[in-house]
Amino acid sequence: MTAQSTTQIPDPSTRYRRTGQRGINTEMLSWLFMRVSGVLLVILVFGHLFVNLWLGEGVKGIDFAFVAGKWASPFWQVWDLLMLWLGLIHGGNGVRTIINDYARGSTMRLVLKGLLYFAVVLTIVLGTLVVFTFDPCPVGADPSLLPSICEG
Which residues span the membrane (predicted)? Predict the structure, then answer.
């Protein structure tokens, strides 16, 4: 006679830990961030497209002067910065999940995630510098090289 083992399936409405892990559930926070940032990105991107393409002259109206005029306003600087930060962190988090799912060895996973984090941080830093240090009319520049908005 053989002994039968029974498997108990926990009630799905209760929280339980399969790994015995303690502390903050970072994967749950990551999942939640993806949902919230995704909704915010949809609003930011469609707002960006609406203002730049529909209210303006379309693609033909977007040039250096258009961007310079837009970034003269702190509102649009913050808007574009939020798109940059949320887009990069959202995308980086998605790629991190893919690396965790498909990278076979722990060393390969570590290298790939290190490269990913480096690329995301570098792009965020450089993009933030561009948004906040952009000056379409630098002092001492050759006037023939400056856009028409700098005249006067």
Answer: 32-55, 75-95, 115-134
